[in-house]
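[step 3/7] inverse_fold.run input=structure_tokens len=232
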């Protein structure tokens, strides 16, 4: 219920029930707004044969890239995979199944899953490999591809601030995929930088209502920069 205290005391408790073969929805874009401590806990637990849905798969040695090191991910659904050499190696070796999805389609598939919409038609991808094997229909003289919604067993989300009831605020660009993922998991776990008492957040500033959040934990974050460009 939205009015219950959602806080848990450890990352072990936050991911209680995670099992081999589950589908994990992970917020973040590049290394911005990723649930880095929850990812580290998944690595520590050693769960395998995971399907992971995220915009990308982190980088070598950080973010979701950590889960590739012990081959915990068997299937990845993402829109971009260009920053991870280990990912490339496992893909080319046939160790990792990859479903590349246009970024807007990925966002809408997750949003639809969270809204209880099983599928939708989109023009994006028509006439390309993205549409292979999928139903195509014509509307007003234009062809559209049927895309199925995405849901997951567990959604791992990074927020900026939350109250004890699980109402979450994201900060700037770190909002990215996080609100979508939060709605589409059977269990949604959110880690944040600060937790305040219920009633302290301005209701107009809340991005994810607590009704979507099952577990909440306060952590510390490295917030690694993916690519840094400075003047010579």
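[step 3/7] decode complete -> sequence:
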């Amino acid at each position: 219920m939205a009015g219950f205290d959602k806080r848990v005391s450890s990352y072990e408790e936050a991911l209680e029930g995670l099992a081999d073969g589950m589908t994990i929805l992970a917020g973040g874009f590049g290394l911005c707004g990723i649930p880095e401590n929850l990812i580290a806990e998944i690595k520590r637990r050693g769960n395998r044969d995971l399907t992971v849905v995220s915009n990308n798969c982190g980088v070598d040695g950080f973010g979701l890239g950590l889960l590739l090191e012990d081959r915990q991910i068997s299937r990845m659904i993402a829109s971009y995979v260009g920053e991870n050499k280990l990912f490339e190696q496992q893909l080319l070796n046939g160790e990792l199944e990859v479903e590349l999805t246009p970024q807007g389609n990925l966002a809408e598939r997750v949003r639809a899953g969270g809204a209880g919409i099983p599928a939708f038609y989109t023009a994006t991808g028509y006439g390309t490999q993205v549409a292979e094997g999928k139903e195509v229909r014509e509307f007003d003289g234009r062809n559209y591809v049927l895309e199925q919604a995405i849901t997951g067993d567990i959604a791992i989300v990074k927020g900026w601030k939350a109250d004890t009831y699980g109402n979450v605020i994201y900060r700037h660009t770190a909002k990215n995929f996080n609100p979508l993922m939060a709605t589409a998991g059977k269990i949604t776990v959110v880690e944040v930088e600060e937790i305040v008492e219920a009633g302290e957040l301005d209701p107009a500033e809340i991005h994810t209502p607590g009704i979507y959040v099952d577990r909440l934990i306060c952590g510390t974050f490295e917030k690694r920069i993916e690519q840094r460009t400075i003047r010579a």
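[step 4/7] annotate
The chain has one domain: 11-218.
The longest helix spans residues 103-115.
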